[in-house]
Amino acid sequence: MVSSVGTINSTSLLNQAISAAKNNAATNAAAASSSTTSSSSSSSLSSLGGNFNQFLTLLTTQLQHQDPSNPTSTDSFTAELAQFAAVQQQVQTNTNLTSLISATQDNQMASAVSLIGKTTTASTSSLSLQSGSASLSFTAPQAGDVAIAITDSKGNVVKSETIDASVGTNTWTWDGKNNAGTQLSNGAYTVAVEGSSTDGTSVSLPTTVTGTVTGVSKGSSGVNIDMGDAIIDISDLTDFSST
Q1: What contacts 183, CB < 8 A, 6 or more positions away?
Q2: Is the full-model pTM beyond 0.90?
Q3: Nearest to 211 by CA among 117, 97, 75, 90
Q4: How far is CA 225 from the centre of its chain?
Q5: Cα–Cα distances in Å, from 211 out to 25, 128, 191, 216, 220?
Q6: Which residues contact 193 (CB under 8 A, 6 or more apart)?
Q7: Tens of pLDDT along 92-130?
Q8: CA–CA separation, 218 vs 105, rounded Å?
Q9: What are the tens digits of pLDDT across the range 7-21?
């Protein structure tokens, strides 16, 4: 192991990795719940359409009941018509955009289906335990202690350890056992890795996870890849192979 001046101790690294893993779990949970935004957008469009119809009803009612001897001023009426046209255009624009986004996602899903059954890598903190095993890689700026922490979907720490990493790319495989040595069930977990930079300060090390694609789904922001129970944005994929 290459030593360096000012490298922080392994206990501190492990505590930071645990904290980072909990934060990552919360972030991933929030991202998963954001899938409801698509229904919220649909609700907003429906509300806009309702306002449009209500505006039209009010306008026609106003015209029916205005005083013939004192009709609505030209300026006021022109302003109301402009508002009416603006709302109408916004409803149509939102409808067209929704259709365009849906068509784009359908095309992405059709292409992504070919990935099912293939081994993929993705730059993400989501770690899928499949067949009792999970694998990840990270790049260490220098040789020395690196702390790894894994949490379950609720943010509870299930595995934490410190390993001796070499400078550059490192691969780590989890056997699916928690700190007590109990084999955990397959599912979606979250990982965080903390190491030391060349100046001796702690640094979060981005992870690249490896797993088998088991499905494809449509999310609020695009197409997602299902890696077991882990849901990963297709834009986070970095590579794939047929085995």
Answers
A1: 132, 175, 176, 177
A2: no
A3: 117
A4: 11
A5: 19, 7, 14, 14, 23
A6: 17, 136, 138, 146, 147, 148, 204, 205, 206, 207
A7: 676 666 655 565 656 666 676 788 889 999 999 999 999
A8: 7
A9: 578 888 889 999 999
